[in-house]
């Protein structure tokens, strides 16, 4: 090999070695690792939180036991009604439920409803004639209902067009028919459910026919959660949910301060006002009378108060103003059986003297005339038997229990032996005898619902029998206030602290509250009033008032005069809510009193979420 060739080979080798080294030292480019997918964007649910005093005993808007602002709110937003009040309180046809409703015959008087073909429950069953039938049958046969008079005059409910048209037949012309069939309930779910009229609605509403549905009732936390009803066929609710939250005064004030609560409707009173004072101009407040008057129902068919003189004596002993001042100082004093103090045209109808104001001398005269004598120690007796009265309030109704205690204190001071009991409210207004549960040991009972959301039950009092068995339940004699009540002992209440619904037509209301309908072939045993009152002399006047398009003032005055004389009840006061709003809450909701019959949550489907 020549020198030139050898040099060439060395050069080429060196170049190859250099290239190989370069390839060996160069970094190897790796593919980039896959980037994780971004987390899904979940928008926070839009909601309004409403502060309330309590959740109430249950959610049937047709039951005295369940009468509360929360039940009114749920009925307004969840249950379908053929007619609803407008901003001025005048009834307007709700075309999302019925496209027409009119009188189609006067002989017999018949009202025909054409139901919206799209209207359906959230359970996917249609809102139909069977829902009308169910409500009619329950209202005429069940005790402890609200405004049942109109349903008593219905003789038949007929279905047409596959249940999407309804003919309601009356036994006589009934001009107030537009007030009927509000708060319809889902018959398909309830008609065969055990205890459907009361028990199935203590834990919520099992289906919705409105813009919201009940998603959960958590009694332990004190919350009812309403969510948008995605199956609602009309304009959907703007908010995802509305939460009704039970809060005490101090907790409410703190919630409003930090933005956890947007609006509230607690019972107006000094404790709430004092707690909210620290918020200053950060909130606005306004009073709003509730559609409920608190009465004392005096039992007239049993026991010592079956004597009208003893009822009048009790009325003369009680200082109603002192009771109101102690229990509900911001409430409106009630001095009439018909209109509530907040209603246009209200005027006090109480006669001069007792029971408008306490009169111990009159009470002593009346008790003496009834055969009672007062011993050296001041106690009233009939022979050797003490005058003993049982005062009862629904366990879940805190203000009512306070009223019962205040009444008992005054009667004891007057020499009458008194026992206070607090059975479940559903029992108190439907059964003749109730378990003698003292208020101090009562835990408000609840029942879990099989539908309508999650329910967190709380411990309950001893179970009691249903209304069908109550008529045969023996009553025990009252134990002295200081005595020990045997477990499950039963008593018959002489005085019941009772909510009275107001806001509807005055004639049917008076007939519902104080009338005693005659038995009919289809209803041989109509339910009695919770206090057992029935006046043959007053009944024709009440029937005439109920059947009148415009009640006669003279008959109204007669009814009030007879009721004050017979005293089946003693009006006390109309409670008032304090409507509270933060600035963002007010701007988003326009929170206000609303019509008396539907309350402050009227129109909540149009509320938007507050912006801080």
TrEMBL record:
Pfam families: SBP_bac_5. Residues 97-429 form the Solute-binding protein family domain. SUPFAM superfamilies: Periplasmic binding protein-like II. GO terms for biological process: peptide transport. InterPro entries: SBP_5, SBP_5_dom. GO terms for molecular function: peptide transmembrane transporter activity. Residues 448-487 have a biased composition (Low complexity). Residues 437-487, 590-612 are annotated as: Disordered. Keywords: Signal. Gene3D superfamilies: Dipeptide-binding Protein, Domain 1, Dipeptide-binding Protein, Domain 3, Periplasmic binding protein-like II. It comes from the Bacteria. Residues 1-21 form the signal peptide. This is Peptide ABC transporter substrate-binding protein. It comes from Pseudonocardia halophobica.
């Amino acid at each position: 090999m020549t020198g030139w060739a050898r040099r060439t080979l060395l050069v080429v080798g060196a170049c190859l070695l250099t290239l190989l080294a370069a390839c060996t030292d160069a970094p190897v480019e790796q593919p980039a690792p896959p980037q994780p997918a971004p987390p899904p964007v979940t928008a926070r649910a839009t909601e309004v939180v409403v502060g309330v005093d309590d959740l109430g005993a249950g959610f049937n808007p047709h039951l005295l036991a369940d009468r509360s602002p929360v039940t009114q709110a749920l009925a307004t937003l969840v249950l379908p009604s053929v007619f609803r009040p407008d901003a001025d309180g005048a009834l307007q046809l709700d075309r999302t439920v019925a496209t027409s409703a009119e009188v189609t015959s006067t002989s017999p008087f018949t009202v025909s409803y054409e139901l919206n073909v799209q209207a359906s429950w959230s359970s996917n069953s249609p809102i139909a004639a069977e829902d009308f039938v169910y409500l009619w049958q329950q209202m005429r046969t069940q005790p402890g209902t609200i405004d049942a008079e109109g349903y008593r005059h219905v003789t038949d409910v007929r279905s047409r067009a596959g249940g999407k048209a309804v003919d309601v037949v009356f036994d006589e012309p009934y001009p107030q028919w537009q007030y009927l069939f509000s708060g319809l309930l889902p018959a398909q779910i309830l008609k065969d459910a055990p205890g459907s009229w009361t028990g199935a609605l203590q834990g919520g509403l099992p289906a919705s026919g409105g813009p919201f549905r009940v998603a959960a009732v958590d009694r332990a936390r004190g919350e009812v959660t309403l969510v948008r009803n995605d199956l609602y066929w009309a304009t959907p609710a703007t908010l995802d949910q509305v939460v009704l939250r039970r809060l005490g005064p101090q907790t409410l004030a703190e919630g409003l301060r930090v933005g956890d609560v947007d609006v509230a409707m607690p019972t107006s009173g000094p404790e709430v006002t004092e707690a909210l004072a620290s918020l200053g101009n950060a909130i606005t407040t306004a009073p709003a009378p509730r559609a409920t008057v608190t009465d004392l129902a005096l039992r007239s068919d049993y026991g010592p108060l079956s004597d009208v003189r003893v009822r009048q004596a009790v009325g003369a002993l009680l200082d109603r103003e002192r009771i109101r001042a102690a229990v509900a100082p911001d409430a409106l004093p009630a001095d009439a059986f018909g209109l509530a103090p907040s209603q246009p045209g209200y005027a006090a109808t109480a006669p001069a003297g007792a029971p408008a104001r306490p009169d111990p001398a009159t009470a002593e005269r009346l008790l003496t005339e009834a055969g009672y004598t007062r011993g050296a120690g001041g106690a009233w007796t009939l022979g050797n038997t003490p005058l003993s009265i049982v005062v009862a309030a629904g366990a879940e109704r805190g203000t009512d229990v306070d009223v019962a205690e205040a009444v008992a204190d005054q009667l004891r001071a007057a020499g009458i032996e008194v026992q206070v009991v607090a059975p479940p409210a559903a029992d108190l207004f439907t059964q003749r005898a109730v378990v003698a549960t003292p208020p101090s040991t009562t835990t408000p009972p609840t029942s879990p619902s099989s539908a309508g959301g999650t329910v967190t039950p709380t411990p309950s009092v001893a179970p009691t029998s249903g209304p069908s068995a109550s008529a045969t339940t023996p009553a025990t004699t009252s134990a002295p206030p200081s005595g020990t009540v045997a477990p499950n002992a039963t008593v018959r209440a002489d005085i019941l602290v009772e909510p009275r619904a107001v806001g509807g037509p005055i004639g049917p209301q008076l007939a519902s509250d104080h009338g005693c309908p005659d038995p009919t072939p289809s209803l041989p045993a109509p339910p009695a009033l919770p206090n057992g009152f029935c006046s043959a002399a007053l009944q024709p006047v009440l029937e005439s008032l109920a059947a009148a398009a415009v009640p006669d003032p003279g008959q109204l005055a007669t009814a009030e005069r007879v009721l004050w004389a017979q005293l089946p009840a003693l009006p006390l006061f109309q409670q008032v809510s304090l409507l509270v709003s933060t600035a963002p809450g007010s701007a988003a909701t326009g929170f206000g009193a609303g019509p008396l019959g539907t309350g402050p949550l009227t129109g909540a489907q149009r509320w938007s979420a507050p912006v801080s």
